[in-house]
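Lab manual, section 2.4: Encoding a predicted structure.

Procedure: take the sequence of the chain (65 residues), apply the prediction step described in section 2.3, and record the output as C-alpha cells. A sample record is shown.
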Amino acid sequence: MAMLKIEDVRNMSAEEIEEELRSLESELIREKGIVAAGGAPEKPGRIRDIRRTIARIMTVQTERA
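Recorded output:
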C-alpha cells in the first residue's frame, strides 16, 4: 500500500478516508505485533510511515469538522 500525501487525502471523499484509516490502523497493529513477538519487520521504516499517514488522515478529518 502506498503512503498518501496530504493533497491525495484532501481529494478523497469521507467514506474513502474512513476506509483508508481502518486499513492503515489494522496494518499498523499487524506490524507492531510482529515486532512485539520478537520478529524483525520486512521494512523497518514502515511503522513510522503508517503512523504519519494516519496522522495526515486525522488532520484532514479535523479540518473538515
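Check your result against the sample. Residues 30 and 36 are 10 Å apart (CA to CA).
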